[in-house]
Amino acid sequence: MNNIINVTGQLELGFNHQRAVPARRRPTRAERAAWWFARMRTAVDNAIAWGTQSVPPPEQILLPQAQGSMRG
After folding, report:
1. In this predicted structure, what is the pLDDT of residue 14?
2. Residues paired with 15 in a beta bridge
3. Is the predicted pLDDT of residue 49 greater than 70, yes or no?
4. ∠ at Cα 15 (12, 18), nearest 5°?
């Protein structure tokens, strides 16, 4: 008996005769950069313009532990 199988073609396995979903094309470096700069332009356009804020007046804080330490 001769059990040698001579296969010269490529074997393919399938799942219920469904075609494989083609892989999505990866964006190019230029496309990724364009996306990033578009996002940054949007962030700058939507940014709040902060005005100068005045400095609050000084506040004196009473420390109860330090009350007697200043007596000389």
Report:
1. 66
2. 18
3. yes
4. 95
Given a contact cutoff of 8 angstroms between Cβ atoms, the answer to whether 27 and 35 are in contact is: yes
* Of the candidate ranges 1-5, 17-21, 29-33, 57-61, the one whose mean pLDDT is the lowest: 1-5
Assigned token pair, 68: 């007697």
Cα 72 to Cα 58: distance, rounded to the nearest angstrom: 27
CA 10 to chain centre: 42
Residue the block writes with tokens 């939507």: 46
- What Cα–Cα distance (Å) separates residue 64 from each residue in 58, 67, 68? 19, 5, 9
User: Nearest 5°: phi and psi at 36?
Assistant: -65, -45
Quickly list H helices, 3-51: 29-45
